[in-house]
Amino acid sequence: MKLTSVDFYLDWPVSIKLKNLREFIIANLEKKGDVVRWSIIDIQNSIDSHSKKKLRVKVVLAN
User: Fold this and answer.
1) Beta carbons within 10 angstroms of residue 34's beta carbon
2) CA dihedral for 12, 41, 8, 32, sign (positive or negative)
3) Which residues, including other chains, have CB under 8 Å from residue 34's CB and lie 6 or more apart?
C-alpha cells in the first residue's frame, strides 16, 4: 500500500452549513482515492466572490 500526502483546495459554498461540512469534504476527497486522514489547514474568503470560502485541506490517501 502506498500513502500519499496531498494539499487539496476546495470551494465551500454558502449552501453547505457548518454541521454538514464534514460530509461535504469527505464526499469530495473520496473522488481522489481512499482517504486515510484529513484536516483543514486554512480557510480564506474567495477573492472573486464574498459568498464562498476556500478551504485548504491536507489529505493522506492510500492507493
Assistant:
1) 12
2) negative
3) 61, 62, 63
